[in-house]
Amino acid sequence: MITNICLLLEELSVLLCIHYLYGEKFKLDIKTTSYLAVYMIIMSAINYYDLHSVLSLITYLLIAIFCGLKFGFRWRVIITNTVLDIVIIGGIQLIMVGCFGQVLNVQFLVDKELLFVNSSVLLIVLFILPKFNVEKLARYLQDKERILIISLMVCIFLTFSSVVNYKIIRFGDANQYIPLFVGISLIFVLAGQLAKYKISSKEMEAELKMHQLYADSFHNLINEIRLRQHEFDNHISTIYSLQYTCKTYEDLVNAQKEYANEIMKENRHNKILTVGNPLLIGFLYGKILEIEKRGLEIAYQISIDDLNVGVPIYRLVELLGNLIKNAIEALSNSTRHKALYIEIIEIEGVFKIEVRNKSEYIDYIEIEKFFKKGFSIKGNKRGLGLYNVKNICSEYSLTLYCDNKTINNENWLSFIISNNHIN
Questions:
Q1: Residue 209 phi/psi, 5° resolution?
Q2: Which residue ranges make up each domain of the chain?
Q3: Contacts within 8 Å (CB) and 24+ apart, 70-76
Q4: Which residues have a Cβ under 8 Å from the Cβ of 96 and sit 6 or more positions away?
Q5: pLDDT of residue 35
Q6: What topology does CATH give the domain 269-423?
Q7: C-alpha to C-alpha distance for 141 and 355, rounded to whole angstroms
Q8: For residues 91-104, average pLDDT
Q9: Apex 16 CA angle, 13 and 19, nearest 5
Q10: Which of 184, 270, 288, 363 is deepest in the core (most CB within 10 A)?
Q11: CA distance 100 to 109
């Protein structure tokens, strides 16, 4: 009888702790009552038939199932809270058993003493544990990276302890190899998962930065469209008013033709908005307008579809953005004719990006320095753009080529990125 009461008190402590970890109030509803009933049946069967105590581990699975039924099957949350529950309740029990053992000067506690211990644990969980805000701890540990790191550290510690222990007892029983093998296997698995998670985290971070870049580009594009809409209304009004200023029909036709040509020249870049991948084109359109506002001459050739070339679009935007930025900065410091050319070509999954600007001839030894981390002619703590370009190209096995080109007897510094060779 006392044993059953001890089991019930212990499980009430477990349930209270679980509710605290989920940030929910404890309610003795049908799910909670059913869990207690199933738990008591399992433990009574184990005790009545004198089964091996290892079978009691099934109750941990029972806790996880209860968490899923009660609070939802979010497995990361279930595993974290179940482990925390076991650690917290087990830790409190160990402390109380140790205290009573010291007070009573005994190594083993009998039923009445265990009843007092479990009652004390329940009181601690009921009145003291809520003050520690264990829900916040649970939420902190539910982060995937933290779970992997903590699990990896625990596996390393247990494996190291096993190795030391086996050295001392000289590997006596063959069964003792099993925990060591499991621990080492888990270390490799967790280390691999942690590495994958960090890679995906970096990719997500890079993608987030690129989305911010997209947002800025489209914001500028929207402002430009609003401005053009206002200008469009003025153009319509001007064309309509030409009939009042021209004396003859021929003068009217010539004036309208001349004015239309000016409008077309002013909006000559609008055609690229209908070409290929909208994210890349939107970004490029904003850059072209920015280049012209800086007083630089810009020419381009764009022939792309969806750019499904095995490289994430945000990476292509990053590559293009770095090359354009580098070219603009080079032209800003130049006293020569300031001209820039951009070419993006896609043919059946093969693509080429070329950005070139008019430049003095640059020796190949100097060109090699462009891609070194921190190298810049603009001062310290600069020169990361081309270094990042080189790293991205290496990551996706892209060809990166920089060369001096002579076009119409003038030297251009050309940067080419491709996943193959396109003439």
A1: -65, -40
A2: 1-142, 269-423
A3: 70/31, 70/32, 71/22, 71/24, 76/142, 76/144, 76/147
A4: 117, 120, 121, 124
A5: 92
A6: Heat Shock Protein 90 (3.30.565)
A7: 47
A8: 82
A9: 150
A10: 288
A11: 8
CB environment 20-39: b (16+ within 10 A), e (fewer): bbbeeeeeeeeebeebbeeb
C-alpha to C-alpha distance for 356 and 352, rounded to whole angstroms: 13
- 301-344 pLDDT, tens digit per residue, is 988 887 888 888 888 888 999 999 999 988 887 777 889 999 99
What tokens appear for 412 in the block? 């251009």
Q: What is the pLDDT of residues 158-205, one digit of tens each?
A: 667 666 665 555 444 555 555 556 656 666 666 666 666 666 666 666
Nearest to 122 by CA among 86, 89, 83: 89
What end-to-end distance do the CA atoms of the chain give, in Å? 88
Torsion sign (Cα): 324, 327, 332, 333: positive
- d(CA 351, CA 194) in angstroms, rounded, equals 33
pLDDT at 405: 93
Q: How far apart are CA 20 and CA 85, in angstroms?
A: 9
Contacting residues for 310 by C-beta, under 8 A, at least 6 apart: 349, 396, 419
Q: How does strand 410-418 pair with strand 399-407?
A: antiparallel
CB 14 within 8 A of CB 89: yes
244 has a pLDDT exceeding 80: no
Distance (Å, whole) CA 42 – CA 376: 72
Residue type for position 104: L
Tell me: the pLDDT tens digits for 346-389?
Answer: 988 889 999 999 999 999 888 888 888 766 655 443 446 788 89
pTM of the model: 0.48
Query: CB under 8 Å to 4, separation ≥6 — which residues?
Result: 40, 44
What count of residues does the chain have?
423
What is the mean pLDDT of the segment spanning 93-118?
78
